[in-house]
Specification:
single chain; alpha/beta; six-stranded parallel β-sheet; four-stranded mixed β-sheet; 30% helix; elongated
Length: 374
């Protein structure tokens, strides 16, 4: 008879945030826990076993009734997400009680050590080293859902994965089911003219900051971050004693390279993006294709040489450098209007077109090309 495998799950710090959860308001779920556990449940044969220390439940400061109503709500919410727990093991003692059933002691899970389970291929998911000690004590591997602590030497053979993301756990336990992983990249590029270090998350929420010291250009970069919903952050040091050219050009190269790197093989993305965006008297049209064949078609006529301290000729050079580095075919057009509005409409439309182009197609891992490669 084939032995069963178990995925032992701590509760606080793994399913919900670490807290004394004695009211519904304190139930806050760890990001991506639902989609990860639901997929693992559907795609594997792991049984789900909750294993938790709940210090002092039943004391005046943590009434049993308050704990149980929240525990019931957590279990019911998981069930509503198609995540079912096969077993629940909870120790209510305090650390000073030295209770033999308290993690990291293996006594609470003794029944899983009696021969019916393939513990060698089972895992304990926890956010503390005591969870990893429990994994070692029962003979399984550990997944440490906490990338902010150091693994002691005696536990390094036990910890199979250390991460701060449930999506990484999903990818580890379900190879090939990593479409929920954030597409990220980091690049550092240092020349005699600039020193730039940036990171990007294509699946972010539009947070971050890139400051070049060029006021209007920084304002445009804010638009790119906000409207693309990419998280982009980093530092730019340029040779302003010469002029702004190298900083704008090199930042475009790094940003374009970041997008290209984060897209990987470009599987499952829309590939094409376009946006028509109006801003006061300006109407900008941007269309792009992550085709790996860079090209810029630019139909823009500025009436001013500078916007603030930013030369308008650098708008074209930014997009040319970006499209080359991102291996992107890019079309930009804007009507005759206020120069500030022209530029801002272009950058906003560009950001939103990129957002559409990198969007994942639900359930697809295909490359959107009859060639089979981009």
């Amino acid at each position: 008879m084939k032995k069963k495998k178990a995925l032992f799950l701590d509760r606080d710090g793994v399913i919900v945030i670490e807290d004394q959860i004695d009211s519904f308001e304190r139930i806050i779920y760890i990001p991506h826990v639902f989609e990860a556990l639901r997929t693992i449940r559907r795609e594997t044969d792991f049984e789900f076993v909750m294993v938790s220390n709940q210090d002092g439940v039943g004391t005046p400061s943590f009434p049993y009734e308050d704990f149980m109503k929240c525990q019931k709500r957590i279990v019911e919410t998981l069930r509503g997400e198609d995540i079912y727990l096969d077993d629940i093991n909870i120790d209510y003692s305090l650390p000073e009680d030295n209770c033999p059933t308290r993690k990291p002691s293996a006594l609470m899970l003794r029944s899983y050590m009696e021969g019916d389970y393939d513990l060698e291929h089972s895992f304990m998911v926890g956010d503390r080293l005591t969870d990893m000690m429990l994994a070692r004590n029962i003979g399984c591997r550990g997944i440490l859902l906490n990338d902010g602590i150091s693994v002691t030497d005696d536990l390094k053979d036990t910890v199979a994965l250390q991460t701060g993301s449930w999506l990484q756990v999903l990818s580890f336990l379900c190879p090939g089911k990593d479409s929920l992983l954030h597409r990220t990249a980091s690049i550092s590029r240092k020349t005699k003219e600039t020193d730039i270090a940036l990171s990007i998350d294509l699946d972010g929420t539009g947070k971050g900051e890139v400051a070049t010291g060029i006021g209007f250009f920084d304002h445009m970069l804010e638009q790119v971050i906000k409207h693309s919903r990419f998280d982009i952050s980093g530092t730019v040091v340029g040779d302003f004693n010469v002029d702004e050219h190298h900083s704008v050009e090199d930042l475009a190269i790094v940003m374009g390279s970041l997008v290209r790197k984060a897209l990987g093989e470009k599987r499952g993305i829309e590939r094409y993006g376009y946006e028509i965006l109006t801003m006061d008297d300006a109407v900008a049209t941007v269309a792009l294709d992550f085709s790996s064949r860079p090209e810029l078609i630019y139909e823009v006529d500025f009436k001013r040489e500078y916007i603030g301290q930013f030369p308008t000729e650098m708008v074209k050079h930014f997009f040319k450098s970006f499209s080359n580095a991102a291996e992107m075919n890019l079309f930009i057009k804007v009507n005759d209007a206020n120069s500030h509005h022209q530029a801002e409409a272009i950058f906003k439309a560009f950001a939103r077109a990129m957002r559409n182009a990198v969007k994942r197609i639900p359930g697809s891992n295909e490359i959107q090309s009859t060639k089979g490669v981009l």
